[in-house]
Amino acid sequence: MLKDTYCGDLRASDAGKTVRLAGWVHRRRDHGGLIFIDLRDSRGIVQLVFNPDDNADAHGIAEEARTEWVLAVEGVVRERAPETVNPRMPTGEIEVVPSSCQVLNQSPTPPFYINEPADVDEQLRLKYRYLDLRRPEVVEPIKLRHEVVYFIRQFLVERGFLEVETPTLIKSTPEGARDFLVPSRQKPGQFFALPQSPQILKELLMVAGVEKYFQLARCYRDEDFRANRVAEHTQLDLEMSFVDEEDVMGLVEELYTEIAKRFGRGKLAATPFPRLHYADCVARYGIDRPDLRFGLEFVNISEPLRGSGFQVFAGALSAGGEVKAICVPGQAEMTRKEIDSLTDVAKSGGAKGLAWIGFTANELRSPIAKFLSEEELAGIRTLTGAETGDLVLIVADQPAVVAASLHAVRDTLGDRLGLKDPEVLSFAWVTGFPLLEWRPEEERWDAMHNPFSGYRAEDEALLDTDPGKVIARQYDLTLNGAEIGGGSIRISNRAAQEKVLALMGYTKEDMEERFGVLLEALEYGAPPMGGVGAGIERLLMELINTENIRDVIAFPKASSGADPMFGAPSPVDPAQLEELGLRVVAEQA
User: b/e map of 243-264 (b: 16 or more CB within 10 Å)?
Assistant: First the structure.
């Protein structure tokens, strides 16, 4: 080895030792004789002191060295003088005096600063990601990812789980997003798909008798990118036999509680995790993954406004809609500019506008108060619990629009008013999802989550009479307003699975073509089974408090879906296309 010690591991207790170090020149300072070099490796930084009187050859190399050159040194660790101790560095009490120095490699000036935080264009960072990862603040989330994944493996293995890798070339199956397709050379005109998840495969493992399976599975979805979504991600995928919801949720809750305690930046909001019902979530927060770090819950104020002279409210209610409000404590004097910007937020959710009432000490601040009776205003105040100094924000429309619009307003207020405490990790379970939802444009039912979720035994008759009222045995895990995992107790017999697929519009031939292997397997003594798929990246995003998923991936794609580092996607050699029996059709102008 060219080194026997890591730069960042040295401490005052090492004074007097001779060590061999190797790393990159993080920073160089020439003090007119004495040259100081901060040497960086994967564990940290240590200061080297080159004195021409100690070793002229080593000093000569230090004169030539520049940032990001790779050096190997041998030298003695010594304590710094008290006045030169750097308390901001773990190695700040010592320095190394090299007796020899060797240049292992040189480097041109990097395209951006590596030795200090800088606002660097993301495209440039991704193009030179191998340099970006040299920055300590960039590589730390990657180290955390390793530690979290290592802990997950230990946790599950200790509880009898078997880690099984499943194929990444499979048959295309409908799971809610576009598949990435891989053409087959041996079977021209036919394709593999990259898995959106190992869903069918893990059920087959349960039929095979594995009983407790997990893997850190790579999953691929050909979707447009968002801040928290990329085309390829990693999920903790696990499945168990002979279990019900409480068994799976209990195991996952124990795992994530431990992860939060070991790796979380602050405190857990509540344990055990709160259990929320889907319909209640939508009614109170407008979404099925609410951020519970703050309140601002919706209040239905429809009743006192029925027959109102204010046409916006009366019209919405007569059309079968609803009127809901958020009470914002202490914000009665919010400026018109701020309220106008919230109105734009509400409109982004489909609302036509945002009504508001400020209950100040002296008067009502509101452009709509003159259209409302004293009884209606009193009813609004009573239902919302608004006190003097509070602001009430109101949306009137169809329920789906009210939910989307007020959720957007609530989420924006959470940011603007500093209500999302970054030190808090607030987990919650959401259950009670409908099994199916109606697709009017396609005139068929579709799975709200996936086609394999089981349903409550007492709802079975509703599959024939009112499928929309069937409740799935589905459970989602949320953290600070993000869905970080979800799963269900599965359908474990063929007849029930075929019945659900038929409601979704699949013919017998479609079922056999798309799901034949699973349907056949369910005939061979399939056990009751359930599991979960939980995104690793979204968990890490919450652990480090970032809104950009690329911060927790070593080599991410850009938001466009392209890879600036490799220049992918890119054309391929025509001979490769010919082997696959493919041709590229020019895009029409």
Answer: bebeebbebbbebbbebbeebb
Residues 26-85 have pLDDT tens digits of 999 999 889 999 999 999 999 999 999 989 999 999 999 999 999 999 999 999 999 999
Residue 174: pLDDT band with limits 50, 70, 90? low
Distance, CA of 43 to CA of 7 (rounded, Å): 6
The 10s digit of each residue's pLDDT in 77-107 is 999 999 999 999 999 999 999 999 999 999 9
Cα 14 to chain center, whole Å?
A: 42
Q: Indicate the average pLDDT of the chain.
A: 95
Q: What gap in Å lies between CA 190 and CA 171, rounded to an integer?
A: 10
Q: What is the DSSP string of 137-178?
A: HHHHHHHHHHHHHHHHHHHHHHTT-EE----SSB----SSSP
| CATH architecture assigned to 294-419 | 2-Layer Sandwich (3.30)
**In terms of CATH architecture, what is 7-105?**
Beta Barrel (2.40)
pLDDT score at 589: 62
Domain boundary assignment for the chain: 7-105, 294-419
- Look at residue 224 and tell me whether its pLDDT is greater than 90: no
Write out pLDDT tens, residues 485-541.
999 999 999 999 999 999 999 999 999 999 999 999 999 999 999 999 999 999 999
> What residue type is assigned to position 407 of the chain?
H
Sign of CA dihedral 524, 526, 532, 536: negative
Tokens read off for 374: 């004293």
Consecutive H or E run containing 236 = strand 232-241
Q: How far apart are CA 48 and CA 39, in angstroms?
A: 7
Closest CA to 226 of 577, 581, 557: 557
Structure-token match 């349903």, residue found: 455
Q: Residue 490, Cα to own-chain centre: how many angstroms?
A: 25
The percent helix, strand, coil of the chain (3-state, each to 5) is 35, 25, 40
Residue the block writes with tokens 């576009």: 178
Angle (CA) 351-357-362 rounded to 5° is: 170
- Whole-number Å distance between alpha carbons of 479 and 74: 48
